Amino acid sequence: MTEPVLDITDVTVHLGGREVLSDVDFRLRSGELVGLIGPNGAGKTTLLRTALGLVPVHRGTVLVGGRTPRQAQGTLGYVPQRHEFAWDFPITVEGAVATGRTHLTGLLRRRTAQDREAVADALDRVGMAELRTRPVGELSGGQRQRVLVARALALRPQVLLLDEPFTGIDAPTQELLSTLLTGLRDEGVAVLMTTHDLAAATALCSRLCLLNRTVVADDEPAALADTDIWLRTFGLDRAEQLLKALGVTG
Amino acid sequence: MTAAFEFLTAPWEYDFWRRALLVALMSGLVCGVIGSHVVLRGMAFIGDAVSHAVFPGIAVAFVLGSNLVLGGAVAGVVTALLIAVFTQNRRLKEDSVIGIFFAASFGLGIVILSTAPGYGGSLESFLFGSILGISDSDVVSVAVIGAGVLLCTALFNSRFVAATLDREQARAVGLPVFWLDVVLHVMVTLAIVISLQAVGNILVLALLVTPAAAARLLTDRLGAMMLLAPSIGAGGSVLGLYLSYAFDLAAGGLIVLTLTAIFLLCWLFAPRHGLLTRPRRTAVPAVLAEEKS
Questions:
Q1: Which domain range does residue A55 map to?
Q2: Å from B52 to nearest chain A CA?
Q3: Which element (helix H / strand E) includes B139?
Q4: B155 reaches A (C-beta below 8 A)
Q5: Where exactly are the transmembrane stretches of this chain (chain B) (predicted)?
Q6: B199 contacts: CB under 8 Å, gap ≥ 6
Q7: What is the pLDDT of residues B24-56, one digit of tens each?
């Protein structure tokens, strides 16, 4: 098996004096598309932010391509939740996507042909090339999500982390993003996304990681048919409906 | 025709008017550029804080008889840094921290100034500006500091944009968000310090915020906004000064009122976004309605 591009070993994270992640073990390899599943407050976003070097690790090790997250900063593609972005800012779609490469450009340097090409490619991949001169404030929710994905892709990353990319978007956009993510996976990009859309995750992902402060289960969707795992992850008493939706009842 | 020409040229006969016009022009320009970032980031209150924070520095410089611009800059930068540091504590909201420091520094300024004999007159000129009492060396300080601010803004512009658009992503790719905040705060401070003599401590916020807000109404492009805001700022300041000359009324107040009038015109008549020019029945754009639901 190939070396993992993201290697999280026995990681414990404290935020505001509270233990948010406990002894988390997680690995992500090139060509994998993994869904990070869990209830609100399970630490999904924190796990992504840990990989990005935005959260101090209390115990354990995080390696991104063999380097610390701090050293690897600027190489990972990151798609935060949509509300993190100032959509009222006077900037075009193209300009917003180009900010994904700002940190690569020196203070005295202008954008290079390589930068422009990467931005154009990213816009093409999310199907936003035609809207590239539109102000971001005039976009729909689905278009906004595509802009954020394009901004991450403008880096041409080997690891792509997405925080709830499917929340609040319509079926066509969801389909477009699904096709895009599987395409990236096939090109060898390592993709990790958090989601509350269990049905989509089951259909799309090669592996699901069930998280609730710690990893409850981590396997192919088909291997997660044990009702108990889902009950433990979500703290439910009855899980019939949930499991029926997932098609794991047997 | 000749009357209009005379109206335009007459003030230039006087040295103090030439200096006043130059300073008004440069202040409007620099404040318009940096004000665009202030408006887009929603940090108008920081501008307010810094303009008050500059006060004790000026008071100290006045009492010691040293350069007022330098004193103000030091005090403003120290306060801007304090605000940047204290707001890293998530339990305190930025506006509370700002409220604490700007009131404190203003209080300190008044106490320091009250130690100087006959402080009433100088207090007034700090608070309301003294654009007709500007010296040649002041003009040079304004030009040099203003050029520095413009150069620095040009260098850091795309980074400021990235940090304002999405702090989370900016941090994630390793942009030094905290230090970018510090640089932006320092730029705001310097823009305020060089504009203090034109419109005074209390009104300087208008020079920073009003032209940029008016420009925002006119365009959805940052590039255009950063050209329009300084144009409005410089044009409005010079026009205000002319009005003050023509009617013999307070210069600082007229500059601010001229800028406000421009803002109101933009609010009413801006293409697409103006109250009287936007298409009917689109009070809430469909996109926003969808996003809010």
A1: 1-76+158-250
A2: 28
A3: helix B136-165
A4: yes
A5: 20-40, 60-85, 97-119, 139-156, 177-196, 202-218, 225-243, 249-270
A6: B27, B128, B129, B131, B206, B207, B251, B252, B255, B256
A7: 999 999 999 999 999 999 888 878 888 888 888
pLDDT in tens, A201-231: 888 999 999 999 899 888 888 888 777 888 8
Our CA-based measurement puts residue A157 at a distance from the nearest CA of chain B, in whole angstroms, of 11
Region B111-137: mean pLDDT is 76
Cα–Cα distance for residue pair B109/B123, rounded to 1 Å: 10
Which residue range(s) make up the domain with B220?
A: 2-292
Task: Give the pLDDT score at A16.
Answer: 81
- Residue A84 CB partners (closer than 8 Å, separation 6+): B166, B167, B168, B169
Task: Say yes or no: A236 and A121 in one domain.
Answer: no
Of A52, A86, A87, the CB nearest to B172: A52
Asked if residue A166 and residue A141 are part of one domain, the reply reads: no
B172/A78 CB distance under 8 A: yes
Same domain membership, residue A167 and residue A146: no
User: Chain A: nearest CA to B289, how far in angstroms?
Assistant: 10
Domain boundary among A122, A156, A190: A156
Q: Name which of A105-119, A184-198, B87-101 the model is least confident about.
A: B87-101
**A residues 68-97 closer than 8 Å to B (CB):** 70, 73-74, 76, 78, 80, 84-87, 89-92, 95-96
Shared domain check, A210 and A148: no
**A43 touches B at CB < 8 Å:** no
SS3 A215: strand
- Residue A83 in domain: no
Question: How many C-alpha atoms does A98 have within 13 Å on its Cβ side?
Answer: 21
**A29 within some domain:** yes
